[in-house]
Amino acid sequence: MIITMKKEMPREEMGKMRAHFESLGLQVHEIPADEFYIFGLTGDTASLDESSIKASPWVEVVRRISVPYKLANRAFHPEDSLVQVADFKIGGQEKIVLMAGPCSVESEEQIIRIGTAVKECGASVLRGGAYKPRTSPYSFQGLGYEGILAMKKAKEKTGLPIISELMSSDKLEEFVENVDIIQIGARNMQNYDLLKAVGRTKKPILLKRALSATIEEWIMSAEYILSSGNPNVILCERGIRGFEKYTRNTMDLAVVPIIKQRTHLPIVIDPSHATGDWKLIEAVSLASIAAGADGLLIEAHDNPEKAWSDGAQSLKPEKLKELIPKAKLVAKAIGREL
Amino acid sequence: MIITMKKEMPREEMGKMRAHFESLGLQVHEIPADEFYIFGLTGDTASLDESSIKASPWVEVVRRISVPYKLANRAFHPEDSLVQVADFKIGGQEKIVLMAGPCSVESEEQIIRIGTAVKECGASVLRGGAYKPRTSPYSFQGLGYEGILAMKKAKEKTGLPIISELMSSDKLEEFVENVDIIQIGARNMQNYDLLKAVGRTKKPILLKRALSATIEEWIMSAEYILSSGNPNVILCERGIRGFEKYTRNTMDLAVVPIIKQRTHLPIVIDPSHATGDWKLIEAVSLASIAAGADGLLIEAHDNPEKAWSDGAQSLKPEKLKELIPKAKLVAKAIGREL
Amino acid sequence: MIITMKKEMPREEMGKMRAHFESLGLQVHEIPADEFYIFGLTGDTASLDESSIKASPWVEVVRRISVPYKLANRAFHPEDSLVQVADFKIGGQEKIVLMAGPCSVESEEQIIRIGTAVKECGASVLRGGAYKPRTSPYSFQGLGYEGILAMKKAKEKTGLPIISELMSSDKLEEFVENVDIIQIGARNMQNYDLLKAVGRTKKPILLKRALSATIEEWIMSAEYILSSGNPNVILCERGIRGFEKYTRNTMDLAVVPIIKQRTHLPIVIDPSHATGDWKLIEAVSLASIAAGADGLLIEAHDNPEKAWSDGAQSLKPEKLKELIPKAKLVAKAIGREL
Amino acid sequence: MIITMKKEMPREEMGKMRAHFESLGLQVHEIPADEFYIFGLTGDTASLDESSIKASPWVEVVRRISVPYKLANRAFHPEDSLVQVADFKIGGQEKIVLMAGPCSVESEEQIIRIGTAVKECGASVLRGGAYKPRTSPYSFQGLGYEGILAMKKAKEKTGLPIISELMSSDKLEEFVENVDIIQIGARNMQNYDLLKAVGRTKKPILLKRALSATIEEWIMSAEYILSSGNPNVILCERGIRGFEKYTRNTMDLAVVPIIKQRTHLPIVIDPSHATGDWKLIEAVSLASIAAGADGLLIEAHDNPEKAWSDGAQSLKPEKLKELIPKAKLVAKAIGREL
């Protein structure tokens, strides 16, 4: 950690500060500079609170040099983490996984019908929302437990493992029992009690990035799950909030190589939320694969104009069917398989 | 709601769409235009899902004309809502309220000491964090229930009502019993289960704006609480995420007149989080009052350099003491009192 | 254009407003609604100033339905525009073009050396900055005319056409004479005098998107060039400003299909500025091609650690050489060539 | 400057890097750390290119400690700079200045009429746009020189000094001769050729912040003018681009104390562009004064519904008249005068 102090700082004050850091077991290196005094702190600075150091009227700048994540850090865990789901693995050089299904489960019949369709297209995980986080209290809030049971039926019929979003830890047991991958939605990325709760299970967790989370904050949320004991974390980028009006969100695909370089966790892209527009999904899906993503999470609906939510960003199965062979070719071009 | 359709849309398709809307009890007005077909929908469009309409390949643009919030809407509730806390009210033309205290409760002794100090400065609510949402799992997570009990002691000693952040609905009872105002933090602004839970109480709820929430989304989160039965909502702006590096967050004070014009709810400003820098708190506090805010929520600590969190954005009581007379003068200049 | 007015608006005022619009040759369609009065205006609304309509105290919302660009609009110009450069074309289904070279021209020797190297890698345009827009007045500002002459020499030696950034219209003649593609930088995207000036030539213009321009504003800047008489516009995305700290900029590849769907102009991606980090360039380049980009603009330097600017985001020729065969495979996967 | 290098960096490579820095006259301080090697560079690092240092595959992080601006820096110039305009000064503890007038000059008669009205309200500078930067080439582009002459007439009639926006250096002479304050608009904040040109005059320059400029970039643009020889720079904040939809721009008033603490230059706020809505101007104006701004730049029009541009964010003179006494009271509350 680097601390810059004003030249007018009394030596005595500086001495007190140095003593304080040394009492915490840190090494303090003073760097003589013209305009400032500079301390370089080494040792285990992870527990230091930057904000308190900055509270001193003599301190100008406090900069952490080392990254704050440990368990997710590729530097300490060079090999790729693979997450086992049903009979396959996600991450590393494994097959790129396609997860698809409707935004909302609307009925048992619907989720079985769409599940069958996306399986035919090549999907290997079925997605479906039973508990829905909606901006408006007046919008459809999901079928709840009934939706989870409907998904379970769809799993039995299609053989596809299922993924669904958990919004509150009081439903955790229900999800652990019934669902193959637990999704933590963007709005709950920093709901730390929920992260700790899923961290105490061994279930695969798909952790979506919050709308305005930095990549570091997102990795730190993964760190909550990992440090609670669950190594099965899949990161999922779904676009961030920006000023653009032609898309629902802004998705920087540079996150794919960044996550790959900095962590050992698998990363999946959700082009439906990233764009909000089914006409953009194909291009963004192919780009995601080319960038190195380990999977795609696509909203699919056989009658999007009648969908209870997110129709505009759902692909019809026939469009999904067109996308898959192209996606396979791009995957092959970069030496992977889908 | 205005729907624009491509000129190439077959009349038959358009007829079907019209019939669909009419079957939902809406009136459909067709506007002849050169480049598009346009439908103007009137009636109760609140339950319509825009996204599904946009899913049609013929639809170009879907625009909602009416605002989606009802209970918070000043148009339907012209008089200011006042929220009763202890023996005073917040909102309308009531006295501007000052809430102050440390980011984290560190001990019973500390919160009593700081509580006493901020009361002397003129604060009428004591803030203190017992459950802390921290970006890192390795940072101090708060004293928990012990912290709540310490705050209660501070309340007994100082007579100040207390505000603290609730992170999870399983602690709701603890908060209802012990705390005067329940704070919902920025990270949980769209934790809808939590909003519904506090909406089922009658406690005053201070709802912070999320880092990247639009003003409309923030009001919609208030709507969750209001529509669950609790009218005692206080909005709190604490800065949004932006690209600026010299401040922790970006705070647009235009939210104050916007909230006042669009809703009837009180609004409080948190200049500590908005700036992240105690040297900026005074200017932003005075500006907030001039803009019409109903209160200030300021982090205060008597030894910020030793604070367990947020030291850099905490005012020392002596600085708070300097701020208050200036704040009183600005309040008077705009015809209010602090 | 849709205009919503408060229900309390006096009929007389509404009559005056209607008469005003009709006097401008527009058709006014009134839509009866419960909460508002609504006007739908049709006819040529392009010259209407939305802001003045909103100035009325009775007006709530003003929404333009039709897009404001005409010449760039694919609806009125369905076939792809191709831009001729030297003996090849950019856009449509043409070969994907690779433009590469140093951020700054440092000497004649340097630009010839790097030009030769990037040509060997497969580049078909040589980039180089002679006039440099630098944040600091104390940074290297470019070699100026000397740099342009050095590029010309490099063109003679390598046979590659050259692209360089024009910052001010008083150098326009110099550029028209010597340069094959004139680049308008992000900072000058809304320097309308400069846009009009290059619009009066027939040179190919590469128009970079400004750091915080919406896609619509960017297209409108292209419209300035097109409407001044120059059809040879190539759009170039180089990342927008966001809150992320791990990258220099944020680049949403969804712009590629959006530009392709809404306009007929070619689009090129600059992964160097988009990421600011050479370690991310390969992944973003492959993703750009998969998304459908017509070209790449990559900073390349044979000694980036000694580069006078932008070293961190420059690829060494040997890295560029590794990238090309992968890029060719991805291009082939989507049915194009590079 | 702090440079962090990977532990795997060969000592030989590190030696070369150290020698390189020393050859530039810098002092290199090595800090032993567990996970990294760290260099602290002291001496004149202003000319160092961070990007090139980062280009090394061994370098992890490069952080500049000292701020890059010198002439604008309050540390080297502690007293406030005052800018003389006509017979008064702007900045420091001088009277807060009110600049008002229409977005566009529409005719000589109009600018004289509005100039007379705003003078009566208490304005001491008349604003008016003659050359207009418009997003669309099809919008009114301003009266040009005719507009400048009309403003000059208004100056003669009212005695008010005038401010107008310069878009291109080929009109510089026209502005130097006729205008009292030259405005550089947000879109040209990084048009460095234009900054250098106005820097070679001695005219007061009002430099607006660009839509997505950081505060540091904005100060660096001021530094261009200052380092070209013109000390008469007034900064003007007009809101930045954000994701909010209820306002045109987002304006963080924390910039006022930040500019005051970091530089010695005057700062003026433009609440018209910041909000885009005349109903928000009063609150934001009062807040700006409370925050410590040295002036306000407000768009005023006596018939905003017929204004040729920016009607929605223009105050009618009668509204301006209501605002002034309130503004005077707030100014007095913080110990200043308006």
Keyword list:
homotetramer; 338 residues; alpha/beta; Alpha-Beta Plaits; TIM Barrel; eight-stranded parallel barrel; 14 strands; elongated
Care to describe what's here?
The structure is a homotetramer of 338-residue chains. Chain A is an alpha/beta fold and 338 residues long. Chain A has two domains: 2-63, Alpha-Beta Plaits (2-Layer Sandwich); 83-333, Aldolase class I (TIM Barrel, Alpha-Beta Barrel), CATH 3.20.20.70. Chain A has helices at 11-23, 50-54, 108-121, 145-158, 172-178, 192-199, 215-227, 255-262, 271-275, 278-291, 317-333, and strands spanning 2-6, 27-32, 36-42, 59-63, 83-85, 88-90, 97-101, 125-127, 162-165, 181-184, 205-208, 233-237, 267-269, 295-299. Chain A has an eight-stranded parallel barrel, surrounded by five helices. Chain A is elongated and about 75 Å long. At the A-B interface, α2, α6 and α7 of A face α2, α6 and α7 of B.
Total individual domains of chain A: 2
Distance between the termini of chain A: 44 Å
CATH topology of the largest domain in chain A: TIM Barrel
Residue stretches of chain A low in confidence (pLDDT < 50, at least 5 long) are none
Figure out the total of helices of chain A. Answer: 11
The total of beta strands of chain A comes to 14
Just give the CATH class of the largest domain in chain A.
Alpha Beta
Sheet bearing the most strands of chain A, described?
A: 8 strands, parallel, barrel
Helix-strand pattern of chain A: EHEEHEEEEHEHEHEHEHEHEHHEH
Shape of chain A: elongated
Biggest sheet, spatial arrangement of strands of chain A:
7-8-9-10-11-12-13-14
Named at the architecture level, the CATH assignment of the largest domain in chain A is: Alpha-Beta Barrel
